[in-house]
From TrEMBL, chain A:
Name of the molecule in the record: Sarcosine oxidase subunit delta
Gene3D superfamilies: Folate-binding superfamily (3.30.2270.10)
GO BP terms: tetrahydrofolate metabolic process
Domain of life assignment: Bacteria
Organism listed in the record: Vreelandella alkaliphila
Annotated spans, Disordered: 90-113
Pfam families found in the cross-reference section: SoxD
TrEMBL record, chain B:
First-listed, main subcellular location of the protein, grouped into a coarse class: cytoplasm
Pfam families: DAO (PF01266)
Highest taxon in the source lineage: Bacteria
Obligatory cofactor(s): FAD; FMN
GO molecular function, one term: nucleotide binding
Biological source species: Vreelandella alkaliphila
E.C. no: 1.5.3.24
Record carries keyword Ion transport: no
The protein, known as: Sarcosine oxidase subunit beta
All residue ranges annotated as the Rhodanese domain in the record: 35-79
Length: 113, 416
């Protein structure tokens, strides 16, 4: 069970208070009428489905009822951070790679980080 | 292939059943095949079987990163039905149903297909209207179906709480008598044995790590056991289809979710049909071994971990106990999850792709098992000819740009 930090309530709460609402940071086309079928189809139906770090929206359904963003790993299910709407993630798939690789190297060499 | 029969059983009893031949070989990969199937689950093995048996393409490899039928084929709740609303999906699932009806004989392998009927319950007036619409549509498509009232449901399943005092009273149901359950492992094994007998190489513990593409055309795959060449590649990889599509340089409109199921301790025969309820969200049947097989819903978030969340299990069991108070003290034995690749319109993708020669059969979401023979058959036909089979044609991945969706969501008693 997830234990999710709501950035608006400023508290950790249990998963059942929340609902997942799909991929975060999707921008509605500014001029929908000007979209090609492909652009509009991509906006409506095509979502990132990474095996790894994923940014998604959740809603604190039985709490403050606000939407916020979660960065989560889709294999380990580890929640890496939560942040308010309109903010950008500090942890991304790219930023995750380096510390892990560095950790692996330091582990190999027996170096204390 | 050594054929199975009652006589064979007696013959092998004389040698203490120690001399049965292996059901399939464990070959080393060749350098080149005519067709490569990626994914050794039910759908992939069925595709290979029909390719070799019906369409004369014998030089085929099935590449599986784990072991045969270790993914969703072994993780589903084994329900088989074809009562879908729209013509396109009804044609596909009924095609599968007709193959199911002769499958054990065709494969010479007992897949334990039991046509014990499936009930889709209605708990509200709107449920009942939808059920009437769907059953009428089914009958127009030549698929059996009946609308039952509360009394009819109670007569079929005496242990269900059909009283007016239930939180969501049962107002009726759709009933498809030809529907039922099948032994899921046997389906994978039966197809594997059949395909192997027709010369298909089944390569387990072989993981595809990339596609070999030149000028927009596929000519092979990279694997952890070396490169293998083929001009036609069919991917049947369920939850990992999106990852493979990215290797091919395009995106599929799929999201992978964990879906879980659980079984109880074995009990005496008590439930002789399959009961599904969309509204309270639970479905249940009893296996031949005696355990109650219970399907839960998907977790709403994306995930590749083959496990589900406990709140989902809890909600499912609430629904089951709501319908069957008699099961309130049955203990659950095992619980597991699989990764389902859900499509926005809850229909599969059986399609060509932007890469020539590369085909995908995926997006079956929460209900792929029932379609295994039909899916394999139409996909094999498409791979053999290079053109989509008429039944598969509407399930193109390009429908998400053309807008020709098959909006089966919720309309077909799909319990998700």
């Amino acid at each position: 069970m997830f234990y999710i930090y709501c950035p608006y309530c400023g508290e950790h709460r249990e998963e059942e208070e929340f609902h997942p609402k799909g991929q975060a940071h999707i921008e509605r086309p500014k001029e929908p009428e000007a979209c090609s079928d492909e652009e509009w189809g991509n906006y409506l139906f095509f979502r990132n489905n990474p095996r790894g770090v994923h940014h998604e929206m959740w809603v604190h359904a039985v709490g403050c009822r606000k939407f916020f963003n979660v960065t989560r790993h889709t294999v380990s299910y580890e929640i890496l951070e939560t942040y308010k709407m309109g903010e950008q993630p500090t942890i991304t798939a790219d930023s995750q790679k380096q510390p892990r690789e560095a950790a692996a190297v330091s582990h190999q060499e027996g170096v204390r980080a | 292939m050594q054929r199975y029969s009652g006589f064979g059983l007696v013959k092998h009893a004389l040698s203490h059943h120690e001399n049965w031949e292996r059901q399939w070989r464990n070959p080393t990969p060749k350098k080149q095949y005519d067709v490569i199937i990626v994914g050794g689950g039910g759908h992939g093995l069925a595709t290979a079987y029909y390719l070799a048996k019906e369409f004369g393409v014998k030089n085929v490899a099935v590449i599986e990163k784990g072991w045969l039928g270790g993914g969703n084929t072994a993780r589903n709740t084994t329900i088989v039905r074809s009562n879908y609303l729209w013509d396109e999906s009804a044609a596909l699932y009924e095609h599968a149903m007709k193959l199911w009806e002769g499958l054990s004989q065709d494969l010479n392998y007992n897949v334990m297909f039991s046509q014990r009927g499936v009930l889709n319950l209605g708990h509200t007036l709107q449920d009942m209207r939808d059920i009437q619409r769907r059953v009428n549509a089914n009958r127009l498509n030549g698929i059996d179906g009946e609308v039952l009232d509360t009394k009819g449901v109670q007569a079929l399943v005496p242990i269900m709480d059909c009283s007016k005092n239930a939180r969501y009273p049962v107002m009726g149901a759709s009933w498809q008598p030809r529907a039922g359950v099948a032994r899921h492992d046997a389906v994978a094994w039966g197809y594997a044995r059949g395909a192997d007998a027709h010369g298909v190489d089944i390569l387990q513990q072989t993981e595809v790590t990339g596609f070999k593409i030149r000028d927009g055309r596929i000519y092979g795959v990279h694997t952890n056991r070396g490169d293998i060449e083929a001009k036609t590649v069919g991917c049947v990889t369920a939850g990992n289809s999106g990852v493979l599509a990215n290797m091919g340089g395009f995106q599929l409109p799929l999201e992978s979710h964990p879906l879980q199921a659980l079984v109880s301790e074995p009990i005496k025969p008590i439930l002789d049909t399959v009961v599904m309820s969309n509204h309270v969200h639970g479905y249940i049947s009893q296996s031949d071994k005696g355990d109650l097989v219970i399907g839960a819903g998907i977790d709403g978030y994306n995930g590749y971990g083959q496990r589900g969340s406990y709140p989902t299990v809890e909600h499912t069991l609430q629904a089951i106990v709501e319908m069957f108070p008699i099961f309130s003290r049955v203990r659950m034995n095992r619980q597991w999850g699989g990764i389902v690749d859900t499509c926005p319109d809850a229909c599969p993708i059986i399609s060509k792709t932007p890469v020539k020669g590369l085909f995908f059969n995926c997006g079956w979401g929460t209900g792929g098992f029932k379609a295994t023979p039909g899916s394999g058959h139409v996909f094999a036909a498409s791979l053999a000819k290079g053109e989509m089979h008429p039944i598969a044609e509407p399930f193109s991945m390009f429908r998400f740009h053309s807008g020709a969706l098959i909006d089966e969501h919720g309309a077909a008693g799909v319990a998700h």
